[in-house]
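My current task is to audit a protein record that another person submitted. Thanks in advance; the entry in question is below:
***
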Amino acid sequence: MKYRKNDAKDAAREVLKGIWTAMPYCWTPDDEFDEPANRTNMERIISDLHVDGHYCSGNIAEFWSMPDAERMRAHEVMLDAADGRIPMIAGCHHQSVKQATMLARHAQDIGYDFVIVLTPFVAARDDDAIYAYYEYICERVDIGIILFNVPPTLHPVSADLAKRLAELPNICAYKQADPSPAATHSIIRAVGDKLVISVADEAPWLTSMTQLGLEWLVNYNPHLYQVPGWLPLRDYTQAAQAGDINRATEIAASLQPLRELHAKWIMGYWNRGRMPLSEMKAWQEIIGMHGGPVRPPVIPISEAARNELERDLAATGIIERARAGTRIAAE
């Protein structure tokens, strides 16, 4: 953290730009944090995929399965693996406001750039309760705090609530997981001049850049849709930023087969109430990353489903591209 509390919003406008990813954590066969595997995945997204930043300990990292000591150790490992090459966000989600504060303070002290905090899931069903929760944390840490709106499962951070929260000096950004364009438009109108906003989905990213003026994408698609030597998301982002909208549109359209697999294998399960982290980890393994086991209540992928996923991915060409990238790196 390289700024003062009252400068958090300015720091966010400077740092929260481009393509950021979030990855599942890898566990060992005996259910411990797999430090070598997680370090290898971090090296891939930085050196090979050239992401602009990384968000640790999100929903897909199974943060809710981790004791606080394990989460803090994970934050230390991932920050060390990044080695100052990209900015970093630590997920400090917790039902206990004291524990969320402790996690945020730890992230602040070891050098994270920002933290992100979900709204709690108990005793938090109105705006005043949510405001009190964030106010408590903001008063006790200096690091910038990113709001995370997940209305299907938690109390929504509406435009009115976001406007109240934006007055707290630490609150500096807003991650939008509500798929409704109208909801995003209302957030932009309410706090777009104060908070950096990211729509947490690759599909509308080109529109977000070119029509809504957003500059930051943070979700897990960058490392699922790209492999070393083939970076279409990065390429169309740079084309759009350079004003070549025709080229950006052409490249973005080439990702449609992968978006359809995302709809089938990731959101298809998620929308039915099951977190598809085993499917996501299998996807990673198939394209050359580490994945590994999951923790209950997440359900492991079946062998038949994994084989089907591999066939689906092969049909898009991404597996061959991943192998080609590996061959080039070896040479």
